[in-house]
Amino acid sequence: xxxxxxxxxxxxxxxxxxxxxxxxxxxxxxxxxxxxxxxxxxxxxxxxxxxxxxxxxxxxxxxxxxxxxxxxxxxxxxxxxxxxxxxxxxxxxxxxxxxxxxxxxxxxxxxxxxxxxxxxxxxxxxxxxxxxxxxxxxxxxxxxxxxxxxxxxxxxxxxxxxxxxxxxxxxxxxxxxxxxxxxxxxxxxxxxxxxxxxxxxxxxxxxxxxxxxxxxxxxxxxxxxxxxxxxxxxxxxxx
Length: 239
What we know:
By secondary structure, the protein is an alpha/beta fold. The chain has helices at residues 43-51, 55-78, 96-108, 129-141, 159-163, 173-176, 183-199, 211-219; strands at 9-17, 23-33, 39-40, 83-88, 116-120, 145-151, 168-171, 202-205, 224-226. The chain has one domain (5-226): TIM Barrel. It contains 8 helices and 9 strands. The chain has an 8-stranded mixed β-barrel with strand order 1-2-4-5-6-7-8-9, surrounded by 4 helices. Strand 2 (23-33) and strand 3 form a beta hairpin. Helix 2 packs parallel to helix 3 (96-108). The longest helix is centred in the first third of the chain and has 24 residues, at 55-78.
């Protein structure tokens, strides 16, 4: 089933400052109504589009990104106290037309780019490093920041951190889950946090599901937490 782009909407999950407890950062998450009218992530359809080699599917995938970007920029214009992150992939900038359309959309927004964070999905290899670096440099001139999403998932390497100027590193569930009970995960998290401070990269721990996890992450110097403990995705912004 093809997705009706007009039905796509953004839900927002808080990213909380672990030192202050402040809610002023959010990740935008794509949601779509199912047959019962519940807004869900359309994993099957979205995944099929993303993995397809057909030009029509690639274009549909890109239009999903553009719909989300438009909603996020509008939300930022309505509230000047928050920042919002948005997933982006190499596919979204692979052609000159898509590359330019994203930058033009950001440029035309009303002075909100400095509160927009673009999260590169780490699942797919960032194929053309020069192209990605150039895109990041141009977007950063508008004030945009960049995050590397899902770090630790699959066979993650440090190559993206060496190759690109990321502002945030988002840790995947595999590193965060049960880290207070698993010495290996605890030491790896501690190492990544200390390394990131030296690189001037902020750490966001995803999948934080308890006060114990939030406190332990704050204790070892993690900057931000995201997960059901702080709030589930919602169409409204919680402040």
